[in-house]
Amino acid sequence: MSLYDWLLFIHVTGAFFLIGGIVVAGILNLAAIGKERRPSEVATLYGLIRFAVPLIGLGLLLTLVIGLWLVHEAGYGYGETWIILAIVLWVLASALGNIDGRYQRRTGELAQRLAQESDTTSPELRARLVDPKALAISYGSGLMAFAVLAIMIWKPGA
Amino acid sequence: MLALIRPDSWDLPLFFHVLGATLTFGAIVTVAIVGFAGARRDSERAIWLRRLAFRIGLLVLVPSFLLMRIAGQWIADKEFPDNGPGWLDVGFIVTEPGAVLVLVMLILAWLGSRRRESRVAVVVPWLATIYIVALGIAWFAMSAKPGS
User: Phi, psi (5° rounding) for residue B3?
Assistant: First the structure.
């Protein structure tokens, strides 16, 4: 196996970790907002979302670092349209994911606090869970990662 | 270096195959996480979490798995109309007995979600973990293509 083969495998592993982590967080988030849940249930689901964070973090790192190395190894130019587009979307997805992560952490903390108090449904918690701006940031970030996957396959402008 | 010389007509099936594979990975990891959380028989949330693991398996894992497998066959037919190389066989080994494993896992997840005392609920996240490892082997074979 050549260096290119190894780099491609590690890069693809990064993509699996990144998109897999996004899918884990997305499914558990949907399970939390899908119906009116008690704060303790929301806290449980948000507690499980934490397992997706290292996957997403490692995926972000591997896709970028090994991806840039692959560009050099395969003889592509760093100024090619598809590479610039992928990097811009990667940065945007990371930034939005970071904002979303902090918002979700505060929502999880609120759910935890409410669960310890009375564990009855709360309009405040519900409002945070279905906030359209927060959902747009969350799902927008995830969709950008899927768009990067499409760019990697079609390589527009290559 | 296949990606560098791939015909354009392979792009769509390859995209669906990789998309299906990454969704399958995310779904099976979620089943494992929720399954382990619901495996404890003394947990008051056990039944709810086991039902959730079953629903994720049925509604997310199965469609993702089908997307991966059907698109994989589509591109395999285009790329290797006659005999495929060894690394391609790894993909078939992971998806064909893998389909049986997923089916068994779903049946056990459904059985485990009916009673809190059920012992089979413990098996579900472990089967999911085995399939995560199998998927890892498949994506190594598919991306690094050892022996080609």
Answer: -60, -30
pTM over 0.90: yes
Q: Count the Cβ atoms, other than its own, within 10 Å of residue A66.
A: 21
Neighbours of A79 (CB within 10 A): 7
Q: Give the separation between CA A71 and CA A83, rounded to whole angstroms.
A: 8
- Best mutation target, A153, A154, A155, to test chain B (most B CBs within 10 A): A153
Query: Is A151:A85 a contact under the CB 8 Å cutoff?
Result: yes
Q: Nearest residue of A to residue B24 by CA position?
A: A20
pLDDT at B2: 46
Confidence check: pLDDT of B1 > 60: no
Q: How confident is the model at residue B41 (pLDDT cuts 50, 70, 90)?
A: low
Backbone φ and ψ of A54, nearest 5°: -65, -35
Mutate to test the interface with A, among B60, B143, B145 (most CBs of A within 10 A): B143
Q: Distance from first CA to last CA of chain A, Å, rounded?
A: 25
How far is it, in rounded angstroms, from Cα A81 to Cα A151? 10
Residue A128 CB neighbour total at 10 angstroms: 19
Number of Cβ pairs closer than 8 Å across A and B? Answer: 87
Residue B42 — pLDDT band, cuts 50, 70, 90? low
Q: Is B37 on the interface with A (CB under 8 A)?
A: yes
User: Could you give the ipTM of this predicted complex?
Assistant: 0.93
In the predicted structure, residue A14 carries a pLDDT above the cut 50 = yes
Phi, psi for A92 (deg, rounded to 5): -60, -45
Kindly report the number of other CB atoms within 10 A of residue A71's CB atom.
Answer: 16
Overall average pLDDT of the B34-42 stretch: 86
Mean pLDDT of chain B: 89
Tell me which amino acid residue A97 is: G
A22 contact residues in B (CB cutoff 8 A) = 26
